[in-house]
Amino acid sequence: MLSEAVAEATSRRGFLARAGRLLLAVSGGGIVAGALAAQKAEAYHFCGHIFTTGSCPHPTGLPRVDRNGFPLRAADGHPVDDLGRPIDRHGRPVDAQGHVLLDPDGNPLPPGPRTRVCEAAARAHHFRAHIDGSWYRCCGGHVRRLIDCCGYVKNRINGDAALTGYCYRGRHVFCVMYYDSKVKC
Amino acid sequence: MVGTVRAARHRGRALAGGAFTLGLALGAAALFGSLGALGAALRPGHVVVLAAVALAGAAALADLAGLRVRPQVPFQVPERWRRTMPLARALFLYGLLLGAGVTTFVPAAAVWALLPLCVALGSVPLGIAVGLGFALGRALPVLALSDETALAERPQGLRVLRVLAAASLALALVAGTARAAAPVAAPASDPGAAGTDLVWQEPGVGGILLRAGVQTHLPGSDPAIGDSFIAWHTGDAVTVAASDTLQPVLQVTIHGVEKLAVSEKWLAYRAAGPSGSEHIGALALSDPSSTIAVTSSWRRGRLGRPSLTGDVVVYHLALPGKSRLFAFDLATRRRTLLRSSRRALLLSPARIGGTLLYVRLGRCSQQLRLGPLDGNGAGRVLYRLPPLAGQDLGHEHGHTEQGSHVPCPARPKPTKRSLWTTALSETSAYITVLHPSGGGHTTPSLLAIPVPK
């Protein structure tokens, strides 16, 4: 992951990303490379996003996801379901203090649906979701992974022509999202 | 107009007044009923309804303030009809024109407000009811006034009429809002309804039966009512009793029983199993020794409370990936998927005939919905609460808005109140609303919402 960061810090070309990954894997310099990549990110509507493709639809707005692509609340990284409710690790809704919400009988309230953000976008816009490549920036003191939600689409979520970005095999970027790692930068 | 009707009455032709009223009623019913049908076809959203209500409020204020009615219609009824037709026919046609409301001079801004309100109502019967009320309002002054100049030449007369129109509109708005959801009891949850009887669970107390305005404490918890039976349980001991006398007709033991539903032939239940699981089962009242597995076991909190009508149990199954409503026919052992959603949480179905009541917790609102059982055709929202979660700006501070998206464009203010269990009778829908009370616990209250015909 961090080795990608160096290669992708100056270019969004997938080829360079993969070549850089290979070279850095050989040299074993991933951690050093991650540190080198910790540069101040330029951005559009969120830190690290360096082009105009819009956010993927997300239950709370900013398209923050966990490492598996499920939605997190951007403000604090708390997992949320598709209704935007904070949830515990079993998917049960919790209150602001983290207590599982209970019905009058003491049973936990039912879990709401929780969908990977890219898959939800794909379902809503009728294409098959692919996560191909990513790029990395330093945001808020941590390494942020910027993720393209790819598909065989002609138009992006903005409504105009979709770009190649970090999508492979003829796929294009439909929308973008991000994962905030715990790696300091 | 007043003079024409008066002249007809004085000549002993009372039929003419009736013809005028009939024309008014038909014209108004046709117009406002059509607007209701248009609303039913278009199913106007929340924004349209709010806009209609706002317009009604503005119209009421305009009438109270005596502002000019705008837009205005510069037409009068054709005077020639009075001379060329029999008086009864002419008055009937005058009534038709005046009943349409906006084909001649519009005396009050409230008239304009009624048009979008009828579209927002989205119901032909309600639209016709509004039209008949409007016709009555137009007929009474004409039939009752002895002096034609009272409205036509004296500003006080028209002023009084407009104040009355404003007051009627304001009252209708207030009454409509209040009628939308009437509190039944609190704390109270898990309603059941049969005819005019209503049962619910009062936390920490037990089952309550509301019959003819009188509340009766039942000798058990989690009551259910259906057809001619009522049921409750005390621990694992379940009692089925005659609904009218409350005399037990069947007593069975169901281990871990939590919730009940009863009909003329069946008793359905949700029971806790080993290691925190739950399942729904049923038994025939005529043969309680053999049980039917309606569902397999699911983790606690996933299966909803069963609701039973005739041979069919309906229930929800909420999983993190998908939320579904099912019907299970106890006579044929056949399961049918009624509704499914990957984005919303579908809960607590209740059914009468081909109509299904259920809760839909979506990202941007919570809705109590009533629709066809098979999911085809338009349903309607009987009650609505704001969403359960807020949203951020869609972009980070200090960054451009370009490319940002938020889930709910209208930015509704979230609520902590949550819609929960339901019941349905021919005339009313019942819904439990959960209020957080700290530590994850919730306090329920019970609301009743009239079911439109």
Descriptive account of the structure:
- With 185 residues, chain A is α+β, with helices and mostly antiparallel strands.
- Chain A has a domain at 2-60 and 118-184.
- In chain A, 21% of the residues lie in helices and 18% in strands.
- Chain A has helices spanning 2-9, 14-27, 30-36, 117-125; strands spanning 130-139, 142-151, 172-184.
- Chain A has a 3-stranded antiparallel sheet.
- In chain A, strand 1 (130-139) and strand 2 (142-151) form a beta hairpin.
- Chain A is globular and about 55 Å long.
- Chain B has 2 domains: 2-180, no CATH class; 184-391 and 402-450, Peptidase/esterase 'gauge' domain (Methylamine Dehydrogenase, Chain H).
- Chain B is 31% helix and 35% strand.
- By secondary structure, chain B is of the alpha+beta class.
- In chain B, strand 16 and strand 17 form a beta hairpin.
- Chain B contains 9 helices and 25 strands.
- In chain B, strands 10, 11, 12, 13 and 14 form a 5-stranded antiparallel sheet that branches. A 4-stranded antiparallel sheet of chain B has the order 1-25-24-23. A 4-stranded antiparallel sheet of chain B has the order 2-3-4-5, with no helix packed on it.
- Chain B has helices at residues 2-10, 14-42, 46-65, 79-84, 87-99, 109-121, 124-144, 149-152, 155-180; strands spanning 182-185, 189-194, 197-202, 206-211, 214-217, 221-226, 229-234, 237-242, 248-253, 257-262, 266-272, 277-284, 287-293, 298-299, 307-309, 312-318, 323-329, 334-341, 345-352, 355-361, 366-372, 380-385, 418-424, 428-436, 442-450.
- Chain B is globular and about 85 Å long.
- Classes of the chains: A alpha+beta (185), B alpha+beta (453).
- Chains A and B meet through loops of A and strand 24 and strand 25 of B.
Chain-wise SSE layout:
The complex is a heterodimer of chains A (185) and B (453).
Chain A: H1 2-9, H2 14-27, H3 30-36, H4 117-125, E1 130-139, E2 142-151, E3 172-184
Antiparallel strand pairs in A: 1-2, 2-3
Helix pairs in contact in A: 1-2, 1-3
Chain B: H1 2-10, H2 14-42, H3 46-65, H4 79-84, H5 87-99, H6 109-121, H7 124-144, H8 149-152, H9 155-180, E1 182-185, E2 189-194, E3 197-202, E4 206-211, E5 214-217, E6 221-226, E7 229-234, E8 237-242, E9 248-253, E10 257-262, E11 266-272, E12 277-284, E13 287-293, E14 298-299, E15 307-309, E16 312-318, E17 323-329, E18 334-341, E19 345-352, E20 355-361, E21 366-372, E22 380-385, E23 418-424, E24 428-436, E25 442-450
Antiparallel strand pairs in B: 1-25, 2-3, 3-4, 4-5, 6-7, 7-8, 8-9, 10-11, 11-12, 12-13, 12-14, 15-16, 16-17, 17-18, 19-20, 20-21, 21-22, 23-24, 24-25
Helix pairs in contact in B: 1-2, 2-5, 2-6, 2-7, 3-6, 3-9, 6-7, 6-9
